[in-house]
Design a protein that fits this description.
The structure is a homodimer of 281-residue chains. Chain A has 281 residues and is an alpha+beta fold. The first copy, chain A, is built from eight helices and 16 strands. Helices cover 29% and strands 29% of the residues of chain A.
């Protein structure tokens, strides 16, 4: 059955005293399951480990995590071709109050759910986006991490639900382009691929890392740096990355209309050759 | 029994799909219970309502909240003289993904727990504090609110557990003094009482608001403005406020030793006269 598992056993609740509930004191990973297997699992583990170091949570044992995930996938009986797993790692139940001894033992729950592929048309023609009015706070202690503190993304994503926007792009409080509410963003400037630095805020997506790596392996360097709003407004191409959909061109944002260009095509082709099959046009 | 209640019924867990667990998508209030009654309940409701507006959660009905809290206090059978209630309001269970229609109906759980009074000596002589190395991100969309996104406070408070610090003071990423991990801070500068502005980050404590109001009623104006670290280092007196302990002088912080001074004495006396009985020396 689709749902949540803890140590291989189906669960549908969590103790109220778990610090995930009380303080969002934890991390998560959202992993694409394709043909019954987790995709880019090593990159997810890497990011999870970075988060555990910053939050002072013991990194769960990788092979137990892999086994528990495999067991959850098997028990969930989802269509193996296309589903999504979510691993939630918290600092567990502890005394009341913000403080805890570090590192805290990790408490892990794993959910497996059906997911719908994005329409092929969106890969060919691009998706509509908006520029969110919600701004990301800067100089966050958890910049780049996928922590359970996600109110900014909740507010940004909720802005997308009123229209037909596939995604909302978010600026930081100092008007730099940072990322989408559930994706990372890449732009083409002077025939170079640029993606915003995530040192101050934002989430370092696994597909973003995989795209940067895959492009580097083909001799294409991605420039990771600050992107001012004006530069975004003037850029030639824009695409989004996300662990579930791979890469998608942007067709529309903030009054600007774009046509998926040569660099975006090159990136999606490279991702497709590297196992992100949705990106094969 | 000490513990959690939902709609008057004892509970010890919450659905994993609750957005409090997944995203910290909610708010909380920590209320002092004295002689079986919630203290400063109206100020807690006011802050909760401000948070509900920003997060797009329907404000729970105030009289139902009051009744449910009274029922939880009664069922908890705590020593009525000194306990603490925590009201957690989340946007509830919803579809997976960050987005939700706003306003979302509120999901409410209420916990009641025993609490220990701070020693009389601390009120007289002050408490030891540290300056946390964890910095608060600036220009937060939830600045001032008591949201469930509290990783910064978790990290800051955890720094206090290694020594004998009663509290950790937190700076923002631009080196301004903001607040304690679980308290607000006031300083005396040139015989004026100053408390940091919380427009960019930090939590607007209920006791902070009550102190400002109570002082204003006696003709003493508190200046709410930015406080640079250097100004803090040079100041004459420092005290903390919190809904549980009222106000406490700081004796030590960051190598600086202080003696509770005239303004701090004046503030605690005013709070004591206004029902914050712990502050009566």
């Amino acid at each position: 059955m689709s749902g949540w598992y803890r140590n291989g056993t189906s669960v549908d609740s969590i103790p109220i005293d778990d610090r995930a509930v009380q303080y969002g004191d934890g991390l998560f990973e959202t992993i694409a399951i394709r043909a019954g297997k987790p995709r880019l699992f090593d990159l997810h583990l890497e990011r999870l480990e970075r988060g555990c170091v910053v939050l002072g949570i013991e990194m769960p044992d990788a092979s137990k995590l892999e086994n528990d995930l495999a067991s959850a996938i098997e028990q969930s009986q989802e269509t193996p071709a296309h589903s999504v797993a979510k691993i939630v790692v918290s600092s567990g139940v502890s005394q009341r109050g913000y403080g805890r001894k570090k590192p805290s033992p990790a408490s892990v729950v794993i959910g497996v759910f059906p997911s719908r592929p994005v329409a092929a048309e969106s890969y060919r023609e691009g998706v509509n986006t908006i520029l969110c009015t919600t701004r990301l706070a800067v100089y966050s202690a958890t910049a780049g991490l996928k922590s359970l503190n996600r109110i900014e993304q909740v507010l940004g994503r909720s802005e997308c639900l009123t229209g037909d926007a596939f995604e909302g792009l978010m600026l930081d409080a100092e008007e730099r382009l940072i990322c989408g509410t559930m994706s990372n963003v890449f732009i083409a400037v002077d025939k170079t691929i640029v993606t915003p630095s995530l040192d101050r805020c934002g989430v370092e997506g696994v597909m973003r890392s995989f795209a940067i790596q895959s492009l580097a392996a083909e001799g294409i360097e991605v420039s990771v740096r600050d992107v001012a709003l004006d530069e975004f407004r003037d850029c030639e191409e824009v695409f989004l990355t996300n662990s579930q959909f791979g890469a998608l061109p942007i067709r529309q944002c903030d009054g600007k209309t774009l046509v998926p260009g040569r660099l975006t095509r090159e990136v999606t082709a490279i991702l497709a050759r590297n196992g992100i099959t949705e990106c094969a046009l």
